[in-house]
Amino acid sequence: MKKLYFALIGLALVCATLPTPSYAAGLPSLPDESLLTDPIWARRGFADLANRFIGRTRYLLALEVDHGRGLLLGKARVLYVNNSGVPHSEVIFRLYPNHPVHQGRRMRVSAISVDGVPSAGQLRDADGTVLAVPLSAPIAPNGTATFEFDYTITVPAGSNFFYVSEPLPIVAIYDETGWRQDVATKGLDYAYTESALYAVRVRAPSHYGTWFVGTLKGAEPHPDGTATYTIVTGPVRNFVLVQVRGWRVIAAEGANVPINVLYNGDPIGAQEIAAISAVAFNYFDRVFSPYPYAELSVIATRFPSGGEEYPTLIFVNNDRTNVYRRFITAHEMAHQWFYGIGGNDTLRHAWLDESMAQIAGYLL
């Protein structure tokens, strides 16, 4: 399997509803739906897991990073399946980039269609994180609908590092209380979502490193100095896109799957993070359950909360003592199992995954 950082380094060396905006022509095309079950995301023996999610909501996503204008341009196709057991006259989507924790980042949806018919949405909260899309006829239990969205997300212009969590409209959780529309935390663990399959195409400048949840399927360089990356995730609860410039990569030696550590700043701290990543991963992989994904990425940088977890990717603070780095790396690694593989309501029951990850940090 091609390692993500080899592909990125190689490419770097090569060099409210409004009318549909003109930038749409610059987006890569949406991935084909067949990519959702491509086995490249999976560790040996786990590829069939994706087939179990075909009868659930899936996401196809095209993104373009415009560093000059400070925009992430997006088109999303959401293949919605009503697994709630009740009919719906509207579907609620979450626009998580508008969460107040991001302090000024804005996600704006410019066009919506439902089964190819133009539609309009209504924002239901002051922050703009809840988007209701009405339906011309209710969707029965087990019924399906295809939603498409054109949108933009503001990002720091010309920055050497930024990341965008959930860079697309995501179907809200529907439980015994109805559609979940809560904004229950001012911290980073604000997204409560179901596991789903994602296939993503991202066009970004080749001199930036492009990191993400999932596995790189292919990379196509373009004459203008950009490249299009095709990504397959397998079943994951979240998606995140990371852009970096001028950072370095080291491999965690001895890990049961490839673990690559992307870092800026202290190389000794990054080496320590790489070493504990391999030890923690191998221990949890043996004691808790086998990890189903083909690889894992660790981003080591100054991080105010200490760390943050996503499926197949974690952030770890690289600006603390070695004792702290050891603990927080193990803690964030444990989240691959507690929240990632074994899910929970991270808004109302954060004690569940956080307590397990906290205990796991002391097991090594």
TrEMBL record:
<feature type="signal peptide">
    <location>
        <begin position="1"/>
        <end position="24"/>
    </location>
</feature>
<keyword id="KW-0732">Signal</keyword>
<protein>
    <recommendedName>
        <fullName>Peptidase M1 membrane alanine aminopeptidase domain-containing protein</fullName>
    </recommendedName>
</protein>
<dbReference type="InterPro" id="IPR027268">
    <property type="entry name" value="Peptidase_M4/M1_CTD_sf"/>
</dbReference>
